[in-house]
Amino acid sequence: MKRLFEFLFPICFHEYEIENKQEVFPYNPFEGMSPTVLAVIEKSILQKYKNPIGTQYTLKCKKCGKMKTYYEEVKYSK
User: What pLDDT score was predicted for residue 32?
Assistant: First the structure.
């Protein structure tokens, strides 16, 4: 039935595959500072900017080549 619809109507039933996978980190306001300033700042404060907050996937359809971006947020259990 799906093949009949594809034949009759110019639509694509997308079958996506992962083109690119990238971890997303929070914005780090201390990124451009000198090492001496960073030594003064507590390591616990800097550590929270090194944990990823999600994953961004770039997907590509196998049939028509349409690109799509999907963002998956990391859920932390408390």
Answer: 82
What's the pTM?
A: 0.64
DSSP 21-61: EEEE----TTTTS-HHHHHHS-HHHHHTTSS--EEEEEEEE
Q: Which residue from 19, 15, 22, 7 is spatially nearest to 52, judged by alpha carbons? A: 22
Interatomic CA distance for residues 3 and 47, integer angstroms? 52
CA 11/CA 61 separation, integer angstroms: 13
For residue 9, which phi and psi values (nearest 5 degrees)? -115, 145
Lowest-pLDDT choice from 7-21, 32-46, 47-61: 32-46
The pLDDT mean for the chain works out to 83
Q: Is the separation of the CB atoms in 63 and 14 below 8 Å?
A: yes
| pLDDT above 90 (res 41) | no
